[in-house]
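Private note to self, pasted from the team thread so I don't lose it. Backbone tokens:
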């Protein structure tokens, strides 16, 4: 059943909200359990559509999975080493099974991800990395066939710090012979969390969070019990929601050290922060200052918060420029925000946003996860009613958002979308 979100804008958010576990850390960590035959348990895994897709992917490979308050995988019975197109097309991150299956079986067949709403999103860097460590790669009928019974560690140098590429090679390198050195590695906190989980499984890794990661291959990995880090993108999205409604909210389980660039930008915009332990009290200003933002690999401003911050700046007191440097095509929220009364012009890779006095509710269409969140944020301040269609995008990555925003006083509900 298709659903839409109906929001009546106005009330400032008030109260307290708790941040869930990180989707983008949980996905590769759960997938890495393929490499450690036995029963692994993961805690703080958010209940999201992408996690359910991962559950299905593992089950189709032969694993036994139970996902209630924790995510339990018994990877012993996995026999299949093929992830078909049907799985990969639903979620690009399914391509991460390549490194894990290769480590376990010496062979993996995984469908090539196609384009997505954000642009072509190639995997050339993943494949280049595998070839550098001696894996044979063939492409046939839309499948990547990777084989390498005795992968030998070597040096891998990415052209740019790809998150998924770093994760895939990191996994395969854990059981390669000798040392693998990953140069120009991505430094995102989710990579650090994956490296920590792999280390608990028995991998020998150093340098995660830096540009060069070194992995000494070991013979085998063992299952673990592991707690996933907080979702910094969910936390960042709530920051924008609080700011845009001039709210006053305490965020619990707040990953402050992973959000320094975001907090810095929001301070410039006039948002007030007060940290006590793992709680952050956030107060939105009466008047939002215009700011310029450019997305960058971590520790820079995350591309996943580009759409949400664009929504915030639509009602700033002046002109802001938001530049997207990571994805080719991540401005699909802009025409929808314009329908809500925003004044935005796209100039190449930048959105020039002239702040308006207020937005006015309308029906809008989401087309990816983060842009659906940005449309909801706009709905929180727009006059009258905003309806966000194709809500399934939101449900890939925000746990119980309707419930969390309602508990903060927002007038928001999910209803059936008729067409
Ligand atoms: N790219 C290539 N070749 C490659 C790999 C990537 O050209 O071999 C390009 C992509 O097309 C894209 C850019 O490089 O334009 C960034 O790709 P990257 O590999 O760094 O990202 P990813 O692993 O595909 C992860 C997150 C994304 C997040 C990006 C950037 C997961 C599951 N996904 O994607 O999250 O935007 O890093 O930080 O971790 C989201 O959660 O909404 C989301 C899209």
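Design output:
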């Amino acid at each position: 059943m298709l659903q839409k979100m109906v929001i009546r804008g106005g009330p400032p958010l008030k109260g307290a909200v708790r941040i869930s576990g990180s989707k983008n850390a949980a996905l590769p960590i759960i997938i890495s359990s393929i490499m450690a035959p036995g029963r692994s348990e993961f805690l703080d895994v958010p209940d999201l559509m992408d996690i359910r897709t991962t559950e299905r992917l593992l089950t189709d490979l032969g694993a036994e999975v139970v996902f209630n308050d924790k995510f339990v995988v018994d990877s012993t019975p996995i026999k299949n080493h093929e992830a078909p197109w049907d799985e990969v097309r639903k979620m690009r991150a399914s391509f991460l099974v390549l490194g894990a299956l290769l480590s376990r079986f010496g062979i993996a067949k995984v469908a090539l991800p196609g384009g997505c709403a954000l642009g072509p999103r190639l995997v050339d860097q993943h494949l280049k990395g595998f070839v550098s460590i001696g894996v044979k790669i063939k492409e046939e009928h839309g499948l990547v066939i990777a084989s390498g019974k005795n992968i030998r560690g070597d040096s891998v140098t990415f052209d740019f710090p790809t998150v998924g590429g770093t994760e895939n090679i990191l996994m395969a390198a854990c059981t390669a012979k000798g040392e693998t050195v990953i140069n120009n590695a991505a430094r995102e906190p989710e990579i650090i969390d994956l490296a920590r989980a792999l280390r608990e499984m028995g991998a020998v890794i150093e340098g995660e969070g830096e540009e060069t990661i070194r992995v000494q291959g070991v013979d085998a990995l063992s299952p673990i019990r592991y707690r996933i880090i907080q979702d910094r993108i969910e936390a960042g999205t709530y920051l924008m929601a609080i700011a845009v409604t001039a709210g006053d909210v305490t965020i619990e389980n707040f990953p402050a050290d992973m959000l320094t660039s975001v907090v810095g930008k929001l301070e410039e915009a006039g948002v007030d922060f007060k940290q006590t332990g793992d709680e952050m009290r956030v107060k939105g200003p009466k008047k939002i200052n215009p700011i310029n933002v450019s997305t960058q690999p971590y520790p820079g401003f995350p591309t996943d918060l580009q759409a949400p911050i664009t929504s915030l700046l639509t009602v700033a007191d002046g002109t802001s420029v938001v530049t997207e440097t990571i994805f080719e095509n991540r401005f699909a929220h802009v025409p929808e925000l314009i329908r809500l009364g925003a004044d935005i012009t796209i100039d190449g890779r930048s959105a020039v946003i002239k702040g308006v006095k207020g937005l006015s509710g309308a029906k809008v269409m989401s087309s990816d996860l983060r842009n659906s969140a940005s449309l909801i944020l706009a709905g929180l301040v727009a006059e009258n009613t905003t309806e966000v269609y194709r809500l399934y995008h939101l449900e890939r990555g925000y746990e119980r958002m309707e419930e969390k925003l309602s508990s903060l006083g927002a007038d928001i509900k999910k209803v059936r979308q008729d067409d």
